[in-house]
Amino acid sequence: MSSRVLLLLSAFLVPVLSTNSPIDHTRWLAAQSKADSWISSMNLTEKAGIVTGTLSGVCIEYVAPIERLGFSGLCLQDGPAGIRLADLASVFPAGVTTAATWDKELMYERGSAMAAEFKAKGAHVILGPSGGPLGRSAWGGRNWEGFSPDPYLTGIAMDHTIRGIQDMGVQASAKHLVGNEQETQRKPTTINGKTVEAISSNIDDRTLHELYLWPFADAVHAGVASVMCGYNRVNETYSCENKHLMVDILKGELGFPGYVMSDFFATHSGVRAIEAGLDMNQPGPLSLFQIGESYWGPNIPEAVLNGTLSMNRLDDMVRRILTPFFYLGQDEGYPTIDPASDALFFEGFDMLSLGTPTPVGRDVRGNHSVLIRQIAAAGSVLLKNENATLPLDPSHLTNIGVFGSDASDPTTGLIYPDDGFEIGTLIIGGGSGGGRPSYIVTPLDAVKSYAREIGARVQYNFNNTALAAGDFSGIYPWPDVCLVFLKTWETEGVDRISLEADDDSAQVVNSVASLCPGRTVVVTHSGGANTMSWATNPNVTAIVAAHYPGQESGNSIMDILSGKINPSGKLPYTIAANAADYNAPIVNITGPEAEGSSAWQSDFTEGLFIDYRHFDEQDINPLYEFGFGLSYTSFELGSSLAVAPSRKNLTGYPPRVNSTLSVGGNPHLWETVVECSVDVSNTGPMAGSTVVQLYVSLSEANIPPNTPMRTLRGFEKVHLETSETQTISFQLTRRDVSYWDVMAQDWKIPAGNINISVGFSSRDRRIEATTVLLQG
Ligand SMILES: *[C@@H]1O[C@H](CO)[C@@H](O)[C@H](O)[C@H]1NC(C)=O
Ligand SMILES: *[C@@H]1O[C@H](CO)[C@@H](O)[C@H](O)[C@H]1NC(C)=O
Ligand SMILES: *[C@@H]1O[C@H](CO)[C@@H](O)[C@H](O)[C@H]1NC(C)=O
Ligand SMILES: *[C@@H]1O[C@H](CO)[C@@H](O)[C@H](O)[C@H]1NC(C)=O
Ligand SMILES: *[C@@H]1O[C@H](CO)[C@@H](O)[C@H](O)[C@H]1NC(C)=O
Ligand SMILES: *[C@@H]1O[C@H](CO)[C@@H](O)[C@H](O)[C@H]1NC(C)=O
Ligand SMILES: *[C@@H]1O[C@H](CO)[C@@H](O)[C@H](O)[C@H]1NC(C)=O
Ligand SMILES: *[C@@H]1O[C@H](CO)[C@@H](O)[C@H](O)[C@H]1NC(C)=O
Ligand SMILES: *[C@@H]1O[C@H](CO)[C@@H](O)[C@H](O)[C@H]1NC(C)=O
Ligand SMILES: *[C@@H]1O[C@H](CO)[C@@H](O)[C@H](O)[C@H]1NC(C)=O
Ligand SMILES: *[C@@H]1O[C@H](CO)[C@@H](O)[C@H](O)[C@H]1NC(C)=O
């Protein structure tokens, strides 16, 4: 790393309090008064019906209409990668794929296109995006639904996704608040008639603010309509009953004006949950086997009448639910619910419409396949490319080998079974973050089209058992290039037990590579980190982490392999050399101890040190670091990093503000306090995009111990033609250069040096500069 320290430039820029929240106060208050006028005419039963879900048989969660008021009801649908299990809808790239693009515009466009489909299906609320799990543990089964274990990157992705969704007039629900970092024992279980409570994520206040809550602050700041509490406990209290979390922090400190809804059957009480800040119970009943019974529902009028629940609080709940509905114009001609939106509820076991013929769905896909292909290509990370193996050179290619269980069509059809499947490509993970594709472009399909264009032969074998055993019978003559496709099945409800790709993948790679040395390209379809023992095998000359790409899988990876698109994805997580290098394993208790009523405890003792912060702190060399990704061209930064504090009279703590609507918390936290700029040039042979990343190190002398040595606090993706140079600028907010002061319960800018470095990954930092915002 060529590190040049530059002292701060003296120019002070004009101070601006530009907090950039899209929420329009005047329109919000108007929406609230519409809600209030309905509330004033609603009876208790109607109010209870707004806050308690009703099973509909079409929408996964539902609020029943009130005809008398002309209220259409609310249809809530899974999930974060497009409307799930609906007929004729798109399967978009997963959250992790989107994070790997590091492209704010694509994050917005994806949100907007998904919302267009939800809206056209008549769904008012998207149950997403997911900012929790953040990805504390590399083994977490749902990490891929969210974005990145870095809270800054996840926060930006939440912000842009939510704006994209809500600008289309659809409500987003930021999930899961908070600490839903493992699937194992995520819900309470009953053993021998005794309840074993769900895992408790025990998180200290600073870690909560600087890691796990951070993306939710961005979500609230972006105006998110709803926040979903999770299945887990936080500090031994269920997240959906945690008053400190929902009332003090979310609605108090972050100024959240919308509604908190429960995850599916995550409500465990009536008045207790309501007093703790829960505003909506979904799906409503106690369980799928106790339809008609609820902690809420008819108990709500009774609790108001017997004085245990105040009418004010009930009105507050209804107001929080109806205000976003009016604010986003959902009372004005919203599309009707497509009865085929949930044709396959519980894989064919549709409890409520048994026997009724399934209608054909409304086709809502539009031209979204173009965007899906683009995002998946942009989220493919080129990890290794020796001897310019990629892009493929058609002039020397007559015979292409395609290998691995991930290359072809799923032999089980288009519905993913709960436990994955052996032969067939993986475009998305399982559970509520999955989707029902109307088609899949497989890697094999795309290689075949490419081969037809260049007049090459394609040979293949998808049987990993045979490949691992070195059985290549039928492959002749031996291919000019061997493309090996690997997959890693990840699903809601189950954590990963291994970080290896599935189906004896390491043996398959080594086996193919030994017969195809110097011409073996490995592509992984995975929801997060994989260990890659084979990455250092010299016979493997190229590796692409293509993540979960959505329905255009083959086209998007072929765009990268052929060089039609220059790869620009960067890892949104760390790939370790060995699984043991990661910290924060899944808590898994076996034997009699697992049956203690509060036995399941997950102490977040690593504090702020997850993912690259842990590797940096422990000085562990990763295989591929956070932020890393190659290109077919090369980029250089200019020689200087300009750093200019935006104002002179900065105070350590933000000035106090009393605003009736400060979404995201104190607006001063979102104010720009430092501006930085740097030049970036394309010095290589072809046009391409790169991501300039900015990391901040706070002065060790003036911050509490256990602070990471550097954290991501800015990034910009830029497209450059050959020899082109552009100036990239970064606006750092007060929050970006503060730490959470537990004693003061506020964000504080430390006195002394603040080091700012920019580069192309967390370990490839090219220039550093130092500034002082507050004198020590
Ligand atoms: C509340 O209004 C509904 C109509 O929306 C009506 O069916 C119900 O009887 C009313 N309940 C009471 C307690 O008045
Ligand atoms: C959890 O407990 C820790 C330690 O007492 C405390 O610092 C933190 O604020 C608590 N967090 C929540 C969300 O209750
Ligand atoms: C009031 O009603 C609620 C809801 O049915 C019930 O749980 C609670 O026990 C009642 N309290 C009293 C004092 O009657
Ligand atoms: C998709 O169609 C919309 C209009 O329906 C258009 O604005 C947009 O540019 C199209 N996108 C692509 C990638 O073709
Ligand atoms: C895969 O190969 C193994 C070993 O050669 C063989 O036993 C198995 O039947 C094959 N599976 C399929 C689906 O062809
Ligand atoms: C937890 O332990 C159970 C029982 O031994 C095992 O089946 C499961 O795979 C383990 N899960 C993880 C994530 O290690
Ligand atoms: C690489 O390929 C050569 C040629 O087939 C083989 O001899 C060698 O063992 C392979 N290396 C590894 C690390 O697999
Ligand atoms: C790269 O290409 C050169 C020249 O063809 C060859 O000698 C060398 O072995 C190749 N390296 C790898 C890793 O395949
Ligand atoms: C800081 O200075 C700016 C003008 O440079 C002024 O608008 C602002 O009120 C001052 N803030 C404080 C806390 O003095
Ligand atoms: C903030 O302003 C509101 C409305 O003017 C007032 O009711 C409240 O007491 C104020 N809060 C603080 C902390 O000053
Ligand atoms: C900031 O940079 C200076 C000069 O390279 C170095 O001495 C100091 O340790 C750095 N401080 C932090 C907190 O990284």
Give the neighbour order of strands across the main sheet. 2-3-4-5-9-12
Oligomer: single chain
What portion of the residues fall into strands of 2 or more residues? Answer: 15-25%
**If you consult CATH, what is the topology of the largest domain?**
TIM Barrel
Q: Which homologous superfamily in CATH is the superfamily of the largest domain?
A: Glycoside hydrolase, family 3, N-terminal domain
Computed over alpha carbons, the radius of gyration is 26 Å
Name of the level-1 CATH class of the largest domain? Alpha Beta
Shape: globular
The second-level CATH architecture of the largest domain is: Alpha-Beta Barrel
Spell out which ligands are present. 2-acetamido-2-deoxy-beta-D-glucopyranose
Number of individual domains: 3
Number of helices: 17
Class computed from helices, strands and strand pairing: alpha/beta
Total number of strands:
29
Give unreliable regions as ranges: 1-17, 346-352
> What's the overall average pLDDT, rounded?
94
User: Which bin fits the share of residues in helices?
Assistant: 10-25%
Subcellular location: Secreted
Enzyme class: hydrolase
Function: Beta-glucosidases are one of a number of cellulolytic enzymes involved in the degradation of cellulosic biomass. Catalyzes the last step releasing glucose from the inhibitory cellobiose.
Catalytic activity: Hydrolysis of terminal, non-reducing beta-D-glucosyl residues with release of beta-D-glucose
